[in-house]
Amino acid sequence: MITEYIVVNEEAPDGEVIRRAGRIIRDGGLVAFPTETVYGLGGDALNPSSSRKIYEAKGRPSDNPLIVHICRWEDVAPIVSEIPPQAVILAEVFWPGPLTMILKKNDRVPKETTGGLDTVAIRFPSDKVAQALIAASGGYIAAPSANRSGRPSPTLARYCLEDLDGRVEMILDGGQVGGLESTIIDLTQEEPVILRPGFITKEMLEEVLDAVEEDRAVIDPDSGIAPKAPGMKYKHYAPRGELMIFKGERDKVVAGINQAAAREMAAGKKTGVICTDETEQQYKADSVKSTGCRGDDKSTARELFRILREFDDEGIERIYSESFDEGYLGKAIMNRLMKAAGHKVIDLGRAEGAFQTS
Ligand code: AMP
Ligand code: MG
Fold first, then answer.
1. Which atom of ligand 1 is nearest to the CA of 100?
2. Which residue's CA lies nearest to atom 1 of ligand 1?
3. Which helix (H) or strand (E) holds 166?
4. Half-sphere exposure of residue 220, counting CA atoms within 13 Å on the CB side?
5. What dihedral do alpha carbons 267, 271, 273, 274 form, nearest 10°?
6. What pLDDT shows up at residue 236?
7. How far, in Å, are 70, 193, 219, 272, 340 from residue 214 at the CA level?
8. In whole angstroms, what is the distance from residue 167 CA to residue 304 CA?
9. Quick one: pLDDT at residue 213?
10. Which candidate among 193, 194, 220, 329 keeps its CA 20 to 30 Å from the CA of 94?
11. Do residues 123 and 141 touch, judged by C-beta distance below 8 A?
12. Which ligand 1 atom minimizes the distance to the CA of 121?
């Protein structure tokens, strides 16, 4: 398959290109497209063969359900068996935007799309290209992130091309996107439960809902409890190099990372550091990259995955990252970074001076 790569205007995509892309999806093909979170690998959500193709192109285990993307609130009712009152409120406040709701599906949604579950994940993205494409495709696009399974989520179209060239019919390049996936909230239980932290925080949800719980498995990844969002159990966003996170006081983190990097470089390894503008000048490694100012969560969310990709391109074998747990997106960002690192954290606050790498 030849993959067509088209640059589109982010705000006003060419109608002819969108019609062609929509036709591909209606005909059962796949198109990678921008959303405000990450690039999506889209197929017709109501066509079981399209969903199978998505799993194949992505190399994703088929028990990991897909999010169905819509472009109008009215399109929820035709694919679910009931609409709980919280869904109406959340849609009113947060849609279009990075919030995914889990609802009980009806027979129109094939099990291939939901990984065999009786529930369906639905999101109404705010990205203009995504909205136009969804409308042109018949209203329902199933889309996971447009990366090969286990690779960092793509924030630029050229990363989709790297991972999916020859596996999808078309890639729409709408520039750089936000970087952090949608918050997932399950509305099929008695109380709403956050299954994946994201751009819409628990505090924001609590402002409009009476009570919001968090999936235990997400709060405490070492609890041994299986996460309710099947995808959360996989090691996601993994860079090729080994990643380790350093926590603690700034000076100690800098010293700790430099020491670890020096040892690995002496052993012939290529090292990379993920840091912030405040500390960038203080590191000695083969490649040092800043996510922006410390505390600028949006910049961190956007730059983090790009940096991990760049380290892959540069052949970095050992990656050391500062920790990013403050700020309103801290929980969501650290959830992603911890997964990328396979939960390897050196806490310099606790184990003072005595850290072991490798
Ligand atoms: P991605 O497409 O890579 O953003 O991942 C989608 C996430 O949504 C995965 O973690 C899925 O497990 C989760 N998800 C999708 N549908 C459901 C569902 N019906 N119930 C629970 N989690 C879901
Ligand atoms: Mg993903």
1. 8
2. 144
3. none
4. 5
5. -130
6. 63
7. 25, 5, 7, 34, 21
8. 26
9. 92
10. 220
11. no
12. 16
